[in-house]
Amino acid sequence: MDILGACATIGVVSITVGMSVKMLLSHTAATVTATHKLVNWAKLPLALATISFAYGGNVIYPHVEQSMRYPRQWTKALWSALMVCFVMYISIAFAGYAAFGHETLSPILRNLPSGTVYHLILFFAFQ
């Protein structure tokens, strides 16, 4: 199940970033009307809550470290996992905000064309 979940997550990130870049390069209506701000203070609480949720797995860290075959490798494993999570979040954030600007919705999948989300769900449901 872990491998399936990781593959599904990487697939969703790849498709979301790919579609955002494609829409940005093709100058669709959503990307043409997008405006950008350096900081949107009104949405800062939502962003902080989302980031806190994303990195909220630290409650189980001691149990995971204890169950590892080589607990001395914990620092490397933790940094690797957090960097993968960081890269996925940053890639979606930059591609989504570049494409949709102030009209970016949460979750980002709501910004993609409806056929894309439907096919995305079908793709991962029948793997």
TrEMBL record:
Indicate the transmembrane segments per the record: 41-61, 81-102
According to the record, the signal peptide region is: none
Taxonomically, which superkingdom?
Eukaryota
Which InterPro entries does the record match to this protein? AA_transpt_TM (IPR013057)
| Membrane protein topology class | Multi-pass membrane protein
Question: What Gene Ontology terms describe what this protein does at the molecular function level?
Answer: L-amino acid transmembrane transporter activity
Main location per the UniProt record: membrane
Listed PANTHER family: AMINO ACID TRANSPORTER
The text of the family note is: Belongs to the amino acid/polyamine transporter 2 family.
Instruction: Name it.
Output: Amino acid transporter transmembrane domain-containing protein
Record organism: Linnemannia hyalina
